[in-house]
Please model this.
Amino acid sequence: MTDVAVPEDGEESRHLARFREFDTEYLRTLRPGDLTPAAQRALARVFSERAAEPGAAVSTDQSTVAMDGTPVGVGGWLWYLIVCLLAGPLLVVMLEASEIHQAEYLHPGLSGLGRWRALVFLVYAVRAAQFALCAWAVHGLLRLRKPAAVMRAQLALWSGPVGSLLLTLLPGLILGVTARGDDMSLALFRAILPAGIWSMYLVASKRVHATYR
Model:
């Protein structure tokens, strides 16, 4: 089948020549909403040309799939990891806020204690720092195409167990109330298990390796 020439205006030709100078990884970072219609057409044409090359990647809805079948880009379980990185810290802080509220309801005098207020402040500060780290990791997974994005995600994942360990020790340090050994072990296990599973996924996933080379 012969190629059919598609008329193009001067602006589209200029964008086409410019986009052809960049590699595909950089072009994927461009957001179509920030481009003019002519630039969008030129970008789509460059992707079509490169998809036809031997060994090139073929576009899908949220990611790409290499000609050898290896998934490339953000999709599949990687999307689920991104959701967990954002939703996980929020769910944890909601549970801890509920526990704080329940403790203050059962013991009305707690809210007036300076050491209690300091403990509550530190709880929220630790979780806020964890959420900021997770948001930074998500930004890297979505915008970067280099190993540094995976390192960000690993740091964010293990901030959960570190934060949980710190928060199990703070009541003893501030209030003199030490958590039971069983409770502490269970809290750490709940934090370490998902971090360990996702950490192994980042190490073993073909999609992750192909996307963040």
Q: What stands out?
A: Residues 77-211 form one domain. The helical segments are 10-19, 24-28, 37-51, 77-106, 114-143, 147-174, 181-204, 206-211. The CA atoms of residues 55 and 67 lie 5 Å apart.
